[in-house]
Amino acid sequence: HGPYQPHEPGYGLDQPGYSPYEDEVPDPRTRMLAIKNAKAYLLKTSTRSGLNLYDHFANILTKILDEQPENTVDIIEDISKDVKWAQFRKKMDTLRDEHLTLPIFEAAEKCKALFVKEGGEEEREELDEEIGQPSLPNVMETAFYFEQAGIGLNKDESYYIFLSLKNLINVQPIRTCRFWGKILGLEMNYIIAEVQLHEGEGEEEEETAEEEVETVAEEEKGMGEAEEEGEEEEKEAEPPKSTYKPPPEIPREENGTGTNKYIYFVCNEPGKPWVKLPPVTPAQIVCARKIKKFFTGRLDAPIVSFPPFPGNEANYLRAQIARISAGTHISPTGFYQFANEDEEEEEGDAYEENPEFEPPPVAEMVESLAMWAHHVKGILKQGRCVWINPSQKSEENEEEDEEEEDKEDEGEEQEEERGLPLLTQISEDEGMKNIPAWTAQASTNLIPQYSVAILQSNRWPGAYAFASGRKFDNIYFGWGHKYSPESHTPALPPPAQAEYPSGLGITETVDPTVEEEIAFKIAQEEALAGEEEEEEEAEDD
Amino acid sequence: RAALGASLPLLQRDYRFERVWFWGCIQGLRGAYYIAEGLGPNRAAPRSRLYSLNCLDWSLLTPATEEMLAVAEQLNGRFQGDPSFEYNLAEINAEVAARLTEGGKEPVIKEEARLTATIEQIDRAVGIVPRGAFVKTPLGSVHENRHFEGLSLLEAKKLSSYFHFTEPVNLKNKTLLEKADLDPSTDFLDSLEHDIPRGSWSIQLEKGGTVVVLRSLLWLGLTFYHVPMTKQFGYVYFGTGEKNLDLPFML
């Protein structure tokens, strides 16, 4: 126990002549007694923790000598604390290990599952040859180009996404597939893939959904008619019926056209199963324009907002994706051309790659925005890409209604909305205040031969596009909101409806005051008196 | 980006910083500003900030004054990307402009000043460190805690394990009961729990819990990372340099 080595403190103290108490205790026996007392004091066990100071010091010194940290004297208190902690941890270790390793291992297992798909591939290959090679996007290549711009995900994560996209393709009948981007959320993020399914697939679901909606609507109408008949029978004073008719619902676009041209799959992390997002309706897009909410990361989360959003987070996500795609998906001008040059703007939805496209040099791509064009149709105010006149559709519905209001009352004249034609160049994009809509840069000035032209959108911060030769792509990394220089002001609730029309029968008039009444009386009496006089005069005549 | 690795050590040598790090990048319309910060031995001292347009040539920014901060808050909109761009104050705030003209200066503010003020605001508002990473000595100077071994996974998920690295505002308001539990050497800063509005931080565990990422929703683009049980942590800002004033509507 005692200090044996020369470098340990306290060494030599029990030798005669070296003790600090030498002057006071010259007698060796008393000195030995003093040392024993000191040691006994140090060995005194603490009542609370079961440690004693002597052992504690010994442990500290051992630790210090083993690790030999710098400036030990500054951190001596922390070392002391750590040694004490070390005594306690051993008991709780078994419990803690179980909890903590679960989430890490789960995630690791999922990622591993991504890699282990070799076995099932041989069967799939036959299927693939029948349908035709689905085009798996080369995510790594696009990731490389975006990395040149300083945007993008970690290489590992890109590879995971690559593998999960491969899984997606194997599971669903997909014609083309593209990594659309990543939207950040509060609890979890979304990884989004843009997909085009083979024709004929996926439409069955939509039809059943529509049928359900129609049957529900018919039931409601049936109920409405029954109520009206009931009310007519009662001919008592009834509360005035509401003259409010909701504006006719604008039908959503068909799958494969306009805003629903692509189908989107999302997942929270690579390795988790892909979830299909429902097609978007114009009402959702119109509402999404008015609200600004963060995504939580759960697709079934409700969106609490005003004006109330028709749908939950999955619909809101889909609406934002549609807006972002319409606003920021661009390609070099001339890469796509119309299939038929005579087609009008509204019908010209089909474009194809231009085989004669010659990629302009990167410097030009950066300098002039006219070298880029949108290849996705813009969304009109109505919420669709192709304008539709709602009053035509509502004729069928209104004939069934017994109470017909004039169409002129609520069906305001809706002017035909025209959006920009399909392949407009982005130089026509208007900026906000004095901020241009796009910022263009070359990835590096040092090596101009291999640099990549990069565009950032200022209207949707987080949307990037790159081009290098024939290759180009768009991607989105961000929160999913549009940029506005002014703060977001939510729509005010509409003014409270008037309960009844104000008219002469209802409006309250001011009661005549006392003077007015007296004056009126006098005037009446005078008039009477005047009449009597006339009568008397007439009788006299 | 590769140039950063080369130029930051040079900066350290020239300015004699003890630690220098890459703070982040503010994207302007025509170019981006890359910002680096350097510190002397006292970690809580006002930091020197440098900016560069190409990661190679760095220029020192003057420390922000309260006046600059007040003026910069009025400015909205993106940064231009040109440090000598001048904002005309007369349009934005007539009072401040009038005061300046009386003082004999022109009612303009340069983008550099706005940059400094913005960085200062971001650092003050959302510059965070994990609990225990820094200790305050009895003399008042703040050092890194070499004994800090990282937060555990449980602690890392809680907002209260992270502190703002600025002068504490709320610390004195805590009740005596709570203060008794605090350890004055490590708990001398404001924790994130009481940030207004609630929920303005998003905590996520990536890669199955190997990395904790906190993102600020007030200043969109500020990301803080920490690998639990290790000493690695840090934060970086990549964004447009604008405060997210719509936060209450978005939650």
TrEMBL record, chain A:
Residues 1-24, 199-256, 390-420 are annotated as: Disordered. The keyword Cytoplasm applies. It holds the Pfam family Radial_spoke. One of its GO terms (biological process) is axoneme assembly. Keywords: Cell projection, Cilium, Cytoplasm, Cytoskeleton. Residues 201-217, 225-236, 396-416 have a biased composition (Acidic residues). It is found in: Cytoplasm, Cytoskeleton, Cilium axoneme. CDD domains: DD_CrRSP4-like. This is RSH4A protein. It comes from Mystacornis crossleyi. The lineage of its organism: Eukaryota, Metazoa, Chordata, Craniata, Vertebrata. The gene is Rsph4a.
UniProtKB/TrEMBL annotation, chain B:
The gene is Rsph9. This is Radial spoke head protein 9 homolog. GO terms for cellular component: axoneme; kinocilium. Belongs to the flagellar radial spoke RSP9 family. One of its GO terms (biological process) is motile cilium assembly. The keyword Cytoplasm applies. It is found in: Cell projection, Kinocilium; Cytoplasm, Cytoskeleton, Flagellum axoneme. The lineage of its organism: Eukaryota, Metazoa, Chordata, Craniata, Vertebrata. Keywords: Cell projection, Cilium, Cilium biogenesis/degradation, Cytoplasm, Cytoskeleton, Flagellum. It comes from Mystacornis crossleyi. The keyword Oxidoreductase does not apply.
